[in-house]
Amino acid sequence: MPKEDAPEFVDTITIKDIAKALNLSTSTVSRALRDSYEINPETKRLVLDYAEKMHYRPNPIALSLKENRSQAIGVIVPEIANTYFSQAINGIEAAAYERGYHVVIFQSQESYEREVEKVEHLAARRVDGVLMSLSSHTFDIDHLKTLQDRGMPLVFFDRIPTSIETHKVVADNFGGAYRATLHLLESGRRRIAHITSQPGLSITKERLSGYLAALKEYNIDHDEQLVKFCTYTQEEVEANLDALFSLAAPPDGFMTASDRLALGYYGGLKKRHIRIPEDVAFVGFSNLNVAELLNPPMSSVVQPAFQMGHTAAGLLLDLIEKKEKFPEYRIERLSTELFIRESSCPNKH
Amino acid sequence: MPKEDAPEFVDTITIKDIAKALNLSTSTVSRALRDSYEINPETKRLVLDYAEKMHYRPNPIALSLKENRSQAIGVIVPEIANTYFSQAINGIEAAAYERGYHVVIFQSQESYEREVEKVEHLAARRVDGVLMSLSSHTFDIDHLKTLQDRGMPLVFFDRIPTSIETHKVVADNFGGAYRATLHLLESGRRRIAHITSQPGLSITKERLSGYLAALKEYNIDHDEQLVKFCTYTQEEVEANLDALFSLAAPPDGFMTASDRLALGYYGGLKKRHIRIPEDVAFVGFSNLNVAELLNPPMSSVVQPAFQMGHTAAGLLLDLIEKKEKFPEYRIERLSTELFIRESSCPNKH
DNA sequence: TTGTAGGCGTTATCAC
DNA sequence: GTGATAACGCCTACAA
Fold first, then answer.
1. How far is CA B153 from the centre of its chain?
2. If A155 and its partner were Cys, which of A118, A316, A341, B245 is the partner (CB 3.0–4.6 Å)?
3. What is the pLDDT of residues B84-137, one digit of tens each?
4. In chain A, what are the domains?
């Protein structure tokens, strides 16, 4: 008789049901299902056939409770509706699928509080490991240190913390930003604005370093007025745009830290009727295939999002499955590539 | 003593631990934690303080096992790296968060087998309800009928099946396609190609109907050579493009069923040096803000992705929480909006 | 007001 | 080769 309040699933069958139906004990059934050597082949057949017929499926919740594990890894990203992360998730799922794990996806929505909450929930759900990319509002990472201290395998990717020793997978942000900036310099730009993400993030810092290193090669001083940290909101992007173009010496080039920021700038420039081809050149960190369709086309640094997810998940699963702890923390750095897209616009100077 | 093989979580504390520490029974502790009226206020304080101090967190797995529910809803989308679905997921998460539910996200990767697998896994995981958008290779929906028969609350959104009675949330695909096509007709186009998704999908059929209805207003016959069903791969897009432009009477307009398809076509046309402004006009179903940045800008039908997710999740949660079953199946149809973006290109005829 | 016992589904240990 | 029992963490009917 089903409990009164609980949902009833009419044909959910358990080991106990099988045992009853075949006049066996639950332990025998359990062993038969797990193909134990100590079970009579006939009994085994009987059980397997019946289980098949009744669509028996082991209850993963009961297993998790017993085993303290779940055959699942948890992923926390700042935002799923960010092409970079959704592509990374694809890489993660591919790696997990190959090795028989499920993937539980959460987003922190760029909020520290949400991130803490999700971390706790994943731990409570007994995921076997966690893949993490930090929210832009996360400065204190005690929640992650605690997680690690409690023995949870943990791998950071893309947006990594500096103040914790762990396994990390990152892109070569420095190199990408360096080459992108150099490209603008080589095409004659000298007032290159850098529009980038929140200052606390690792990716922000690395890209800024690359930008500055390139400027240095041309003996150009760091002009802080040309560096803008911001979120993805169009209002903020436009405020920065106004600030930049009201400078005594406005920028003649843009090195943006993401495709979304770049699109925001294109939109903002267009709205202000600032003709992009004649005034400014763009480079962005792009994962979209729109870069070359824009007017003018945008050169871009492409980061291997899928590969990053795949690598990070592979590393995490190694961690989970190796009995012995890895002797030291590994850091994988994936290379980035600069695609130069020339404007075919005739009025280019 | 911890089990030898299971992962140890050093400070994971249970009700039993609290009971032992305070010399109480587990039931007393349990009741105190749930703020039961029958517990001595002092005992309650004692328990709550200790639980707080030790960072006690109830084990959701044990709860799920007991209650056959999980305070979580499951979502299956064809692909997360699709702006439309990732925005819908945001809407879903917002609605779920408001009502204290977690969201478990899976992708079917446009594969029927994967979809079946994910559905089973969600059911096994005892999610309290399922939100579903069909894969493009799903024609047989027995797995979903079964799920529903077993009592699982189920709401479809965006890509819905026709052969099952359920709650559904969809966009006004017919109206959007109708208005988009009409827009092209009004601007003088007469050979309008329709590039769309897989023929089995509800969205595909509805949009095709809208397209045909608009043509009919202008007494234009349905030319099947102008309608192309395809996936998102660039190869397929380009093959269609070649077929279309090798027609005796090539298209002079495009009505595409998604932003991604539209971008594929822009890319393909560009590669072939087909000058878009003079030859063809585009309309696409867009959720990106790039439409107006393209060259030429693309008019687009915008669908409310976030709102769709939010609505669908709200409906599902109502279903879950109402004791009485809803008397009849509800279908929500969300309106779409056509944004016309004129080319500012001087060589427009 | 508090304690005891049983059960959710499964597996491991120990008997027989 | 098979069965009984306990345990994972929690809740609740029943007993005291």
1. 17
2. A316
3. 999 999 999 999 999 999 999 999 999 999 999 999 999 999 999 999 999 999
4. 15-57 (1.10.260.40), 70-170+305-334 (3.40.50.2300), 173-303 (3.40.50.2300)
Instruction: Answer yes or no: are the C-beta atoms of A76 and A118 closer than 8 Å.
Output: yes
Q: Using alpha carbons, select from B122, B121, B129 the residue that is nearest to residue B99.
A: B129
B34 sits within 7 Å of strand D by its CB: yes
CA of A169 to C1' of C11 (A): 37
> Would the CB atoms of B86 and A90 count as touching at under 8 Å?
no
Burial group, residue B283, by CB count within 10 angstroms (0-12, 13-18, 19+) = buried
Tell me, what DSSP letter sits at residue B301? Answer: E
Q: How far apart are CA A69 and CA B155, in angstroms?
A: 30
Q: Cβ distance A8 to B151 under 8 Å?
A: yes
Q: Which two tokens stand for residue A254?
A: 């843009």
pTM: predicted TM-score of the whole model, two decimal places: 0.91
Q: What is the CA radius of gyration of chain B?
A: 26
What are the beta bridge partners of residue A255? A194, A283
Please name the amino acid found at residue A212. Answer: L
A67 touches chain B (CB under 8 A): yes
Query: CA torsion angle for A162, A164, A167, A171 (degrees, to 10)?
Result: -10
pLDDT confidence of residue A326: 66
Tokens of B171: 């966009």
Q: Is A289 on the interface with B (CB under 8 A)?
A: yes
Q: Prior bond to B304 cis, omega within 30?
A: no
List Cα–Cα distances, B124 to A99, A143, B74, B104, B121, in angstroms. Answer: 20, 30, 11, 13, 5
Cα B277 to the center of its chain, rounded Å = 33
Distances in Å between the alpha carbon of B258 and those of A153, A164, B137, B177, B313?
40, 43, 18, 11, 23
d(Cα A140, Cα A184) in Å, to the nearest integer?
A: 36
Q: Residue holding tokens 């608009």? A: B214
Residue for token digits 């140890």? B8
Residue of B nearest to A151 (CA): B9
Its sign, for the CA torsion B272, B277, B283, B284, is: positive
Integer Cα distance of B47 and B40 in angstroms: 11
Residue A199 amino acid letter? P
* Minimum mean pLDDT range among A219-233, A249-263, B221-235, B282-296: B282-296
**Could you tell me the maximum CA-CA distance found in chain B, to the nearest angstrom?**
89
Give the three-state DSSP class for A212: helix
- Cβ neighbours around A328 below 10 Å, total: 8
Token representation of residue A345: 């616009």
